[in-house]
Amino acid sequence: MQKQILIVGAGFAGMWAALSAARLADKNQQPIDITVIAPQPELRVRPRFYENAVQTLVAPLQPLFDVTGVRFLQGHVEQILPGSKEVSWKDASGENHLHHYDRLVLASGSQVNRDIVAGAAEHAFDLDQLESATVLEQHINDLAQQPESDARNTVVVCGGGFTGIEMALELPGRLRKILGADAKTRVVVVERGAQPGGRWSKALRDVIIEASAELGVEWKVNAEVERVDASGVTLKDGLVIASQTVIWTVGVQANGLTAQIDAPRDRQGRLHVNANLQVVGHEDIYATGDVAYAATDDKGNHALMTCQHAILLGKFAGNNAAASLLNVAPLPYRQEMYVTCLDLGAWGAVYTEGWDQQVKLTRAEAKKLKVSIVSELIYPPKAERAAAFEVADPYAPFV
């Protein structure tokens, strides 16, 4: 019987893990059964969910899996059973199954936790998953049908991280198109830090502040949300912001399957892994993407929950899972280069290099690069076997 690699998840990390494992098996001319279990055979381009037309931001994966010999099972994993090297999963019709593995690659991603603040789960929107981002987009598009009020014209974005910033700075232009150029709209970012972008370099922070001011986006800093209800947001200092549209972008946690593996995890639930991306204490289980707490270098930096890191983590995890079955030397994960390219709405964008976030491009130049990255570079390769395997090499240039 062929050895089996089972990959849980078909996001950036899961997709690339499958292709990378298939590539190494093909290169060594030794067949391995590579299976992906995920809710749908498509890559959902999550980094773009702050944009319009969210439902178009997907890329089909079945043709790519077909030409590379990857088997796809539609469903979701409910339980990991390391003792018997099995997972329990439920298919699209609700039927339960067990699937054996010789190597497991956990690439099940992450999600926003709206339960950390009273009322957020019931009354806040998010752009974390395709379904919830679609609901948010439809809600924003329908605002013009609501009676004129300050609450209708105000959007509160909870969290000033990259997701919150991209959403907030996209909104002024979108609201003008929906509510009219003369509407007195308001976009407010609630941030618990002392200043906008306070966790990043001064150069990047200054750009965020400049772009926010030019677009009229307000920041409430040193602020935390006490509760969310149908009328808006109440902050812990007692300030009430009336709003029909509260968007939640904080509290991102690794998928709950990580808790089923007896291994160290970080505060976001990510599994500690070694240089080969094996879960500590579990040689047969690899973690990748948003579920992996992985060192990117020897300087103390760790991969972030971004597609930039997920893509390369996926390639290394898939390669190393296959290598362990083929008696081939693994490739230790390294990702020395770190960049950011942050969309800042009508103002443009900002591009930085290095963990110290040196600003290299701004405004229109950075926007052009941002569009290229999110509309071309992060998408799956064409469904051509040789071409797909070429870019699935962990040492290939960034796709």
Question: Topology, pairings included?
Answer:
Layout: E1 4-8, H1 12-27, E2 33-38, E3 42-44, E4 58-60, H2 62-68, E5 71-81, E6 86-91, E7 96-100, E8 103-106, E9 110-112, H3 120-123, H4 130-141, H5 150-153, E10 154-158, H6 162-179, E11 186-190, H7 202-215, E12 217-220, E13 225-229, E14 232-235, E15 240-242, E16 245-248, E17 252-254, E18 271-272, E19 278-279, E20 282-287, E21 292-293, H8 307-326, E22 339-343, E23 349-353, E24 358-362, H9 363-377, H10 385-392
Parallel strand pairs: 1-2, 1-8, 2-5, 8-20, 10-11, 10-16, 11-12, 18-21
Antiparallel strand pairs: 3-4, 5-6, 6-7, 9-17, 13-14, 14-15, 19-20, 22-23, 23-24
Helix pairs in contact: 1-8, 1-10, 6-7
Domain FAD/NAD(P)-binding: 4-311
Cofactor: FAD
Keywords: FAD, Flavoprotein, Oxidoreductase, Signal
Query: Beta fraction of the residues?
Result: 25-35%
In CATH, what is the class of the largest domain? Alpha Beta
Helix/strand-derived category reads alpha/beta
DSSP helical segment count: 10
The helix fraction, in percent, is 25-40%
General shape: globular
Under CATH, the homologous superfamily of the largest domain reads FAD/NAD(P)-binding domain
pLDDT < 50 stretches: none
**Can you summarize the main beta sheet?**
8 strands, mixed
**Count of all domains:** 2
CATH topology of the largest domain: FAD/NAD(P)-binding domain
Distance from N terminus to C terminus (CA atoms, Å) equals 34 Å
Write the CATH architecture name of the largest domain: 3-Layer(bba) Sandwich
Report the average pLDDT across residues: 97
Strands, total number: 24
Radius of gyration: 22 Å
Strand order of the largest sheet: 7-6-5-2-1-8-20-19
Organism: Kluyvera genomosp. 2
Domain FAD/NAD(P)-binding: 4-311
GO molecular function: NAD(P)H dehydrogenase (quinone) activity
InterPro entries: FAD/NAD-bd_sf (IPR036188), FAD/NAD-binding_dom (IPR023753), NADH-Q_oxidoreductase (IPR051169)
